[in-house]
Amino acid sequence: MRRKVIGQFTIDMKLPSLNEVIEANRNNKYTGSRMKKKIETDIGSYITIAKCLGTLYPVGEEPIVIFIEWHEGNKRRDADNIESAQKFILDALQKYGILVKDSRKYVKQVYHKIFDDSDHHYSIVRLCEVTEDDLDDNWNHKLSDASAVTLSA
User: Fold this and answer.
1) Are 7 and 59 in contact (CB under 8 A)?
2) Around 147, how many Cα atoms within 13 Å sit in the side-chain half-sphere?
3) Orientation angle between helical segments 86-95 and 29-53, nearest 10 degrees
């Protein structure tokens, strides 16, 4: 089933990993706070550009799903460290008026795909309409491939 994209934008920068965020917060609480504010402002500039180009609009009360393509310049960062930057993206989408809130009432799911195909780091964020699969609590059909995996002792 094809999914309707209702908005998208590109973040043309390397977002911090969870390890970098933890380190900033350990240095002192003000460093971590400044880092979060700066990253959200940087992402906000890309949101503003997309709004001006007409590729991103406020989604209102409708629930959405978000797809994030992470384009990495190398394989040095773990998937969980890369994907943790979604926090900054969702907070910026709310702060810049695209999302009413970033709660599960409005953002039903976030999907990630990491590509090691670029000479620089960037991310593509797509906001899409919700499908029945996104609302389905039955994971059996979603994880059917996992049933073929057996663990040995």
Assistant:
1) yes
2) 6
3) 60
Write the DSSP symbol of residue 121: -
Chain centroid to CA 78: 15
Beta partners for residue 125, in sequence order = 9, 68
Q: CA dist 41 to 6, 79, 101, 142, Å?
A: 23, 24, 17, 36
φ and ψ at residue 135, rounded to 5 degrees: -95, -15
CA distance 57 to 117: 29
pLDDT band at 137 (very low <50, low <70, confident <90, very high): low
**54: alpha, beta or left? (left if phi > 0; alpha if psi -120 to 50):** left
Report how far residue 87's alpha carbon sits from residue 85's, in angstroms, rounded to the nearest whole number: 5
Reduce the DSSP state of residue 70 to 3 states and report it. strand
Residue 124 to residue 12: CA distance in whole angstroms: 9
**pLDDT higher than threshold 60 for residue 129:** yes
Going by C-alpha positions, the residue among 21, 10, 22 that lies closest to residue 71 is 10
* Angstrom distance (rounded) from CA 90 to CA 61: 15
